[in-house]
Amino acid sequence: MKHGADIEHWATEFMGKTRVEVKRERLKRLLAGLHRHPDSASLPVGSPQRILVQSHERNLMQEAVHLGYEPPEQVLKELGLHLGLEVGLGL
User: Fold this and answer.
1) Is the pLDDT confidence value at 3 over 80?
2) Which terminus of the chain, N or C, has less C-beta within 10 A?
3) How many CB atoms lie within 10 A of CB 64?
């Protein structure tokens, strides 16, 4: 995942600060999900594998945002998540 290092750094740091066990488990699942697939940029353009991994990356970003991660605006635009935010849809 292109932005996985940022999310991984944030999740690791946040996991050390939180004492809520449920949130810690969700952060562990998020970290495991980051390493489940290769970076979508390494896969052939237009291939089913790349489309699947990009969908997985969007879901991981949504989960990270739901847990409190604040990605740069450019990241949201790249993943197409800004459109939902602009029309008032929650992640």
Assistant:
1) no
2) C
3) 26
What are 66's two structure tokens?
């739901």
**Burial of 61 per CB tally in 10 Å (0-12, 13-18, 19+):** buried
Residue 70: partners with Cβ closer than 8 Å, 6 or more residues away:
none
At 10-53, the pLDDT tens digits run: 999 999 998 899 999 999 999 999 889 888 888 999 999 999 99
Contact between 12 and 31 (Cβ < 8 Å): yes
Q: What is the pTM of this model?
A: 0.73
- Name the nearest CA neighbour of 10 among 74, 88, 70: 70
Q: In whole angstroms, what is the distance from residue 53 CA to residue 22 CA?
A: 26
CB 64 within 8 A of CB 7: yes
Count of positions (residues) in the chain = 91
The amino acid sitting at 45 is V
